[in-house]
TrEMBL record:
It comes from the Eukaryota. The lineage of its organism: Eukaryota, Fungi, Dikarya, Ascomycota, Pezizomycotina. Residues 145-168 have a biased composition (Pro residues). Residues 145-172 are annotated as: Disordered. This is AB hydrolase-1 domain-containing protein. InterPro entries: AB_hydrolase_fold.
Length: 404
């Protein structure tokens, strides 16, 4: 990415792939999904790839995590990310059908890419809703639990043959990393989000028009979630940090990777707006649970407190476990400041205290310095922790060149 403009970097075919999805039992034209497939690739030995699916925020573009390409290569992680309906190059769909379509379209995309299981799912803000719905309905996308070998009654005789070379240890449990998870204001006491939720659905449905009106001038500053809703609610005086950029942080000396991300990020956001953001209106209606078809909550589970017990049952039935790590922003205008000690953080953490019968290993932490939109910026270090947990160091081929 170094020495490239953001436009040249994003023109790479890896960030501009198209998949046509035909829902089973329909005769309608295929549903077009634009997606990105980047990071580490090893087509000769695909078993060495650690597969990560990114479920993005309100501005649900496939490009939001693109600046982590080199980091993914370093840790042998292959990232799959798709524009959600109505964003970028993906066809639109009615708000009431977004979750239903997406939960089946993503497994079809992964099957198209010959990906049977995911080593990790990483989410940002509203992407948490989609990711948990996906895991609830398709738990077999997670890594299967390794079988426990039966105890041997007799010791094995010593072998005179040389020991086989050590093999790369593969993860045995899928990591679900939730960044600044979307939490309804009922559980957070967030005044700005409460005000937004009280707006008429007819106004929320024009979110895309509002941000297109200003996007040509301040698109890089609008951000991916909080900044967008800030403009919709007109509450900028209350929403400190909502329009920050990666360069606004003061946490330590910036590395070369951090400076490079901060250099290209405005161009990434500009490309997101240029490709189209019409779907953000329907996205806002869904996440705020407003408008036709949304009054009953998300999907067939309503809210997280309705999902958790069902998820535990589904994982046990499928013979799966998941390791869940939640990363709260220290300053969050949508779910409340304070991270794990915020009202929203305490409520969300409390839902998982039981571990759901041993199938969910849960942990949470506060990312110092980060705000809602910047939870995965390299500057704050959380995304590096996730990639280190999922992958391995040394994503280079035998000639020393970075594999792509």
């Amino acid at each position: 990415m170094a020495a490239q403009t953001a436009a040249d970097f994003l023109d790479d075919p890896r960030f501009n792939r198209v998949f046509e999805y035909t829902p089973p039992g329909t005769t309608s034209p295929p549903f077009k999904i634009k997606y990105a497939d980047y990071g580490y690739r090893n087509e000769a030995h695909s078993e060495q790839e650690r597969i990560m699916f990114f479920s993005g925020p309100l501005m649900a573009s496939r490009l939001v995590l693109a600046t982590k390409d080199e980091l993914a290569i370093k840790h042998k992680i292959r990232i799959i990310s798709a524009d959600r309906p109505g964003m970028g190059g993906t066809d639109p769909v009615a708000p009431k059908d977004r979750l239903t379509l997406w939960r089946d379209a993503i497994p079809a995309l992964l099957q198209h890419l010959h990906i049977p299981h995911l080593h990790a799912i990483i989410t940002h803000s509203g992407g948490t809703v989609y990711a948990l719905d996906l895991v609830l309905h398709h738990p077999t996308l997670l890594l299967p639990n390794p079988p426990i070998p039966p105890p041997s009654s007799t010791p094995s005789p010593p072998s005179s043959s040389p020991s086989p070379p050590p093999q790369t240890q593969q993860p045995t449990t899928t990591l679900l990393a939730l960044g600044a998870p979307w939490i309804l204001p009922t559980h957070t006491a967030s005044l700005p989000l409460s005000l937004l939720q009280s707006l008429p659905p007819s106004l929320i449905s024009h979110t895309d028009k509002l941000i297109r009106l200003v996007g040509g001038h301040i698109a890089p500053a609008l951000g991916t979630s909080a900044g967008v809703l800030n403009r919709l609610g007109g509450a900028s005086a209350l929403w400190s940090g909502a329009t920050s950029s990666p360069a606004d942080g003061e946490e330590g000396a910036a590395s070369g990777e951090v400076r490079e991300e901060e250099r290209v990020w405005p161009g990434v956001m500009r490309r997101v707006y240029e490709e189209g953001v019409a779907g953000v209106s329907d996205e806002a209606l869904l996440l705020l649970q407003r408008g036709a078809g949304a009054e009953g909550g998300w999907g067939d589970w309503g809210d997280y407190d309705g999902l958790v017990p069902r998820l535990g049952e589904g994982l046990r039935a499928a013979g799966r476990r998941v390791r869940m790590e939640v990363f709260y922003a220290e300053s969050d205008t949508l779910t409340g400041d304070g991270g794990v000690v915020s009202k929203g953080g305490k409520w969300f953490d409390g839902l998982w205290e039981g571990g759901e019968g041993g199938v969910v290993e849960y942990g949470s932490r506060t990312v110092k310095g980060a705000d809602h939109d910047g939870i995965w910026w390299l500057r704050w270090g959380a995304v590096q922790q996730v990639f280190e947990a999922v992958g391995e160091t040394g994503g280079r081929n035998e000639s020393g060149d970075v594999s792509r």
